[in-house]
Design goal:
Elements lengths: L2 H35 L6 E2 L8 H9 L4 E4 L14 E5 L5 E2 L4 E6 L6 E3 L8 H10 L3 E8 L7 E6 L2 E2 L5 E3 L3 E7 L6 E3 L8 H10 L3 E8 L9 E5 L5 E3 L3 E7 L5 E4 L1
Parallel strand pairs: 2-5, 7-11, 13-16
Antiparallel strand pairs: 1-4, 3-5, 6-10, 8-9, 8-11, 12-15, 13-17, 14-16
């Protein structure tokens, strides 16, 4: 056999050995190492986390070899508890690898402040839509005699008139005083002396009248917050929408302001 043929044979043997080693390494990498490294064939079903508290979710995911990541864009739902899960990604039921990150959006601890919109002179239906768009809750609807049928006459927060632009927590309840469409009517001025100031205001508005000045006076003879004087006096013939001034007992120096 010539030297050339011997050299070709040696080269062929070496190439065969190299190819065999290459295929062997590739087989070990793709069929043994890589599946073991990526937990091939092992998956975890993503649980439904919405409605659970942050502390509950963290331990729950760790026990299933999943990692919780809280997103920065927290939301706010008035009916949900603080730090309650509002959204998650991946969605419940998805199949993921172990150690997969599960992104959750939590309910904020404190309600964000929003500016109160103006609902006065707005139709009731539109006012309710505006409240919903601003993240506010429509509370009680009180009908009073007024020519404007279903027109908002007053917007109230915690029993008091609230002006446009005042900052209040998102999710707050706003009560509405609405016209019944019957227009002006004559009525007797009710007697509100001795009532709590909030009860007196409710009776005044419920009678179709409007609140005038609320004057605070110092007195030790009646409980704080009690109406001690009214103008016009009880029994006087009134018309719908007329203003009523009241004087309310309060400790300290006498002050006056307009509602």
């Amino acid at each position: 056999m010539s030297d050339f043929k011997v050299g070709i044979k040696k080269v062929g043997i070496h190439l065969s050995i190299i190819l065999a080693l290459t295929f062997g390494l590739l087989f070990v990498f793709f069929e043994i190492y890589l599946p073991d490294y990526t937990h091939h064939g092992e998956s975890v079903t993503v649980p439904d986390l919405e409605g659970f508290h942050y502390d509950e979710v963290q331990g729950y995911l760790e026990g299933r070899n999943l990692v919780m990541v809280v997103t920065l864009d927290s939301g706010f739902v008035a009916d949900a508890k603080p730090l309650e899960v509002l959204k998650q990604n991946p969605k419940p039921g998805a199949k993921v690898k172990q150690d997969r990150k599960i992104y959750v959006t939590l309910n904020a601890k404190n309600a964000p402040l929003i500016r109160m919109p103006n609902l006065v002179h707005t139709p009731l239906k539109n006012a309710q839509e505006i409240l919903a768009n601003f993240g506010l809750v429509r509370g009680d609807i009180v009908y009073v005699p007024d020519i404007g049928h279903n027109a908002v006459l007053h917007q109230k927060y915690r029993g008091r008139d609230i002006k446009e632009g005042l900052e209040i927590p998102k999710g707050s309840q706003i009560d509405l005083v609405v016209g019944d469409g019957f227009g002006n009517q004559n009525l007797d001025m009710p007697n509100i002396i001795g009532m709590d100031d909030q009860e007196a205001e409710f009776l005044i508005l419920g009678s179709g009248l409007s609140m005038g000045n609320v004057n605070y006076v110092e007195t030790d003879t009646v409980p704080k917050g009690t109406v001690v004087k009214q103008l016009p006096p009880a029994g006087l013939m009134m018309q719908t929408g007329e203003r009523v001034d009241i004087w309310v007992s309060k400790l300290g120096q006498e002050t006056t302001f307009n509602e």
